[in-house]
Each structure stands twice: as C-alpha cells, then as structure tokens.
Specification:
binds manganese (II) ion, D-amino Acid Aminotransferase, Chain A, domain 1, mainly beta, 6 helices, seven-stranded mixed β-sheet, about 40% strand
Length: about 375
C-alpha cells in the first residue's frame, strides 16, 4: 500500500516536536517523477540530502560531502528513508535532540529526467540552478551508494589543487614610500597554515607541507560553517592569551601534538584561532593570479567569523599608523602587501614586506 512508503519516515518523527512536514497515512499519490532537491543539513554531522521525487515520495540519500561537481570524484551517498514530496519545500531548524536535529536549507532544486532506475542503479539528468548534468548513483552494499557525475565539470571548473604553498614576505626596515600602493595587515607570528575546504571538511598543511589537520580540530567548525563552499585559505594559527594577544608560549603547547585524546584535551584547555588572510582558490577557480585587492574582497565576501576563526582587518595605505598600532598592541610588526600583486606560491617575494615594530627590531 502506498501509505506504507512513508511509515519509516513517520516512525522517526513526532509531528508535535518537529517543524518538518508529516503528512497523514494514505496521502501519498504519484506525481510526475521529475522534481529533485538538495538540502544542506547541519545535523550532528554536516551532509547534503539528495532527493528525487519518484512514485509519490522523495527517494533520499544523505551525501556527507555534497553533490560532486568533479567527475573524477565519487561521493558516498547513504540511502535514507523515503521523504514526503512536500519535504522538497522544507527549510528550518529541527530542534536539538530530535531526529536529524539541526538547520536545513535548500541548496538547490530543479527538475530531473530518469535515464535508468533499477534496484542498485539510478541514472538521472539534473537541471537545477547550481547543479546541471548527468549523474549516476550505484549501490555498493546495503544502504551505501556512490554518487558520480557523468558530465564534464561545469565550464571553467577547476578541482582543488593538491597544495598551493605559501607566499613569503621579505624583511624590510620601514614602511614603503609609495604607501598608497600597499595594504597592511598585522604580523601575527603564529603557525602559517594552508587550509583546503571542500564538502564542509578541512585539510591543513603547515608552511613546510606537513599535514596538520588532526593537530588543529578547531578548523573543523570553520569548514562546516562554509557549507558547500570550496576554498583554499591562507592564514595563521595563533593561541590567544587572556587579553587576546597571540602567545607563542601557548601556541607551542599545541604544535606537533598528535594522538586524538591529547589533541582533544589541549584544544579545550589551550584553543587556537585561525586568522584567515588570503584566499587562493574559490568554488572551482584559482584566484592566485588575481591582484591582492580582489582576493581580499573575495575573502571578506566569505564572512569568515566564528568562535575559533576570523578574518583580521587589512588597511589600504596608512602603513605608519598601522605600524604604530601594532607596537601599541605588542605585536611583532606588520606585513605590507602590494595591492596589485598576484599570489606567488612557495616564493619569497618583494611584493610582500615584513616590517618589525621598533620594539622588537633587532632582538
Ligand atoms: Mn538529513
């Protein structure tokens, strides 16, 4: 009986406690089998729910890293209970403690065409605003499937690079004379980190190319907050003291630590903050050739701000005043970056200058 298709769905939910639609038994009726929706679901583990309307319900998979745009990458898709068709409109917050507790938002929706539909294989053409193309889902065992894009990547789409490598500043004695051609940031004196984010998950490397992802679990919350944004971020990990100043002593307690239990303990007692200063790749495009001012605008557009990450300010021109402010805040100095300069991966460059505050100069 058709109403049975939604029994597992109803059994998991209390209509009095969830804002999700819970249609009564017997309300399932076949439609046109042509609607798809992808919902971003910030549950205990971030995932994207991929749903295809079929036989009066939404046949559903939870895709932990989201719908792949790169045909070279297959993504795990775990089949979940059929959802009511009205769920395709659902956005909202499911209360913590309830089944699927967390925020749900529509990431994309549109129409689809079926090319093949068997017990272990579903081949469709999606027409949404963020996703267009042919996809196949194939069962690998039990409720586990893989999702694969059969079309070429979207026009101009570049997958995340393996690792970009840091651009390095050259030491300088003073603020440049052509001050208006430079932007200024504080020199934070922490652990330089390149953080890749895809599917809401981070991967991080130190300046020397060591994988430090497991050492700094604070990065996970930032990556999760970025949803489906694909990015390479350049920044500095710092440990802030009681008055909010970066402390090298505190940071040392976190460096080179491995072992999940120890990392967990230390991230609670001595948390780090990721200060993001540059974006080198964003949503399928490399940004390294774009001038600093454009990269800075893209970075600010990401609105990265949370309990363990933020985008510290940059000032365009006015280097002398920034250097004075750095000294007053007992920071090591400032980094001057030529406004029109591209990012030079792995290179020491004169387009970035590190100027020490007088207090620390020569010590
Ligand atoms: Mn879900």
């Amino acid at each position: 009986m058709s109403e049975d298709a939604l029994s597992p769905y109803r059994a998991k939910r209390d209509p009095a406690r969830t804002p999700e639609p819970v249609p009564p038994p017997g309300s399932v009726s076949p439609g046109r089998d042509d609607t798809f929706v992808v919902q971003e679901h910030h549950a205990s583990a971030l995932h994207w729910d991929f749903r295809l309307e079929r036989g009066g319900v939404l046949v559903s998979w939870a895709v932990p890293k989201g719908v792949p745009l790169d045909p070279a990458v297959n993504r795990l898709a775990v089949q979940t209970e059929d959802h009511p068709v009205s769920y395709a409109d659902f956005e909202g917050d499911i209360a913590g403690g309830e089944y699927g507790g967390g925020g749900v938002s529509i990431w994309d929706r549109g129409t689809y065409e079926t090319e093949e539909w068997t017990d272990g294989k579903v081949k469709v053409v999606l027409r949404g605003s963020r996703v267009e193309g042919r996809y196949v889902l194939f069962r690998t065992g039990g409720s586990n499937w893989m999702m694969h894009r059969m079309s070429p990547p979207p026009a101009g789409y570049l997958p995340l690079p393996a690792r970009v490598g840091p651009m390095v500043a050259t030491a300088a004695r003073a603020v440049p004379e052509d001050d208006e051609r430079w932007a200024y940031e504080m020199a934070w004196g922490g652990v330089r980190a390149e953080v890749h984010v895809e599917g809401g998950r981070p991967t991080a490397w130190s300046r020397d190319g060591i994988d430090i992802t497991a050492t700094y679990p604070e990065l996970r919350a930032m990556a999760e907050s970025m949803g489906a944004t694909q990015a390479v971020l350049d920044g500095v990990l710092v440990a802030l003291d009681a008055v909010g100043r970066p402390s090298v002593g505190l940071l040392r307690q976190r460096m080179d630590v491995t072992g999940a239990a120890r990392v967990r303990r230390l991230s609670a007692s001595t948390p780090v903050t990721f200060l993001v200063v540059d974006v080198l790749h964003l949503d399928g495009r490399s940004t390294t050739e774009r001038p600093y001012r454009e990269r800075r605008a893209l970075l600010e557009g990401l609105g990265l701000a949370g309990p363990s990450w933020r985008t510290p300010p940059a000032w365009f021109g006015g280097g002398a005043a920034v250097l004075t402010a750095a000294r007053e805040q007992h920071l090591d100095g400032v980094v001057a970056k030529q406004i029109e300069s591209p990012y030079r991966p792995g290179a020491r460059s004169r387009a970035w200058l590190r100027i020490a505050t007088p207090r620390t100069r020569g010590t």
